[in-house]
Design brief:
Length: 418
């Protein structure tokens, strides 16, 4: 391999057919943003959209905007825009609530389906390295149901197959691991779950908009995910829910709020679920935040996941190679799989002083983040990250490590949010 240079990266940027998409984002000067896996950057259109929602739709339209501005149908309309990114059909997805809340709903629905098929199935299988909220929600639901449900955790994806059995109700896994960036084989694991009579719930928080996902082809049963990471919906923007069409009518809503009611404005005293995806809704949605989700989704309409995936792998390959060749004399350990088929759109390196190294990088304008234990996480968003930025970020990392500047006391102080 020829030695990589900054000129080489500049040439990659010149040849990048997705280069123009960066102009759709407002990124501050002097910052290399490698944390789109935690909070996506702001689409330029979001400021104008927010102003219009607040001043015109809310300010002028007032209550009329539920009808005239399409607020009431917004969860379904956005769901339809998001659907192609995850291999879902039209009228199969809604944007609503949070990932934690949507997981509670689909897990409850899945357990209910299983209880009607085979009441002996009481176990939810997941990974101990799954994002904590997923595990906490499953624990909370099992406690609430008080019927002997339990969570069985395995310590690595290789152990999933052996953990599935006649007692398994649901396999609940995250497609791309938030910490390691490892991607699981959705079709294979779903087939394994089905072969054992279990249903498969997939968390797409680090996949939606980051890697090609085909829920239908994988035969998945339920999926949830957030819109504020790779989809650039804005801080705390609402999440999404998908249910396989064959399970939709059996979807039992544990949070049976009025938005999921068959006739929300009939104001009936008894709950009756709406038909179709609207039954995944609970109550009134944060419309100002939800409206901004569209700005992120509209950018995806200008490209396709295959092109984004190709660039994402090029970016992560380049980052891994540069860190290993230029910072290889430091105790950095790659914990993200090298194999393309097992990698999402982020790269994680463990370092004994991972927190301080990341704090120092952020201070120098290279924004990634930190996850326990010792892990420096770098997210690569092919919509706006350039190859030259990858080069420049590694040069800053090299300087931080070579100079030992991260040992400075101010980089040891933990912020509330890491
Ligand atoms: C980011 C993330 C969440 C976040 O859930 P919220 O309800 O939005 O806080 C959940 N699960 C996974 C796997 C995540 O990566």
């Amino acid at each position: 391999m020829t030695t990589l240079t900054r000129e080489h990266c500049l040439a990659l940027d010149r040849d990048d057919t997705l280069r123009h998409l960066r102009e759709q984002f407002a990124l501050p000067e002097g910052v290399i943003y490698l944390d789109g896996n935690s909070l996506g950057a702001r689409p330029r259109a979001a400021a104008e959209r927010a102003a219009a929602v607040v001043a015109e739709e809310w300010g002028d339209g007032l209550i009329r905007s539920w009808n005239s501005a399409g607020w009431f149908e917004l969860p379904q309309r956005l769901g339809n825009k998001l659907a192609p990114l995850v291999g879902a059909g039209q009228d199969e997805v809604v944007v609503t609530d949070t990932t934690s809340i949507n997981l509670f709903k689909v897990l409850a629905a899945a357990l209910r389906v299983q209880a009607s098929r085979d009441p002996a199935r009481k176990v939810i299988v997941s990974e101990s390295s799954n994002f904590p909220t997923d595990l906490y929600i499953a624990q909370g639901l099992a406690d609430l149901l008080q019927q002997g449900y339990s969570l069985k955790l395995v310590d690595s994806p290789e152990q999933i197959e052996a953990a599935l059995g006649a007692d398994t109700a649901v396999l609940m896994v995250t497609h791309v691991n938030y910490k390691t960036g490892e991607m699981l084989d959705m079709a294979r694991l779903t087939a394994l779950a089905h072969a054992k009579g279990a249903l498969a719930v997939w968390d797409l928080c680090h996949s939606a908009g980051a890697v090609p996902v085909d829920l239908a082809a994988a035969g998945a049963d339920y999926a949830i995910g957030c819109t504020y990471k790779y989809l650039n919906g804005g801080p705390g923007s609402p999440a999404f829910v998908w249910v396989a069409p064959g399970l939709r009518d059996a979807f039992w809503q544990p949070l049976s709020g009025w938005w999921g009611h068959a006739a929300p404005f009939a104001m009936e005293p008894g709950y009756r679920p709406r038909s179709g995806v609207a039954r995944y809704l609970c109550g009134t949605q944060p419309i100002t935040s939800m409206a901004l989700v569209e700005c992120g989704l509209d950018i995806y309409a200008q490209t396709d996941m295959q092109a984004l995936r190709a660039k994402s792998l090029q970016l992560t390959d380049l980052f891994i190679t540069l860190v290993e060749t230029r910072c290889g004399h430091h105790p950095l350990e790659l914990i993200t799989p090298r194999e393309h088929g097992r990698r999402g759109s982020q790269v994680s390196f463990a370092h004994p002083d991972g927190y301080a190294v990341m704090a120092n990088l952020i201070d120098r304008g290279v924004i990634g983040d930190y996850r326990e234990p010792r892990i420096a996480r770098f997210g690569f968003t092919p919509l706006y990250t350039s190859f030259t930025e990858v080069w420049d970020a590694v040069e800053v990392l090299r300087d931080v490590l070579d100079s030992g500047s991260y040992r400075d006391a101010r980089f040891q102080i933990r912020s509330t949010v890491t």
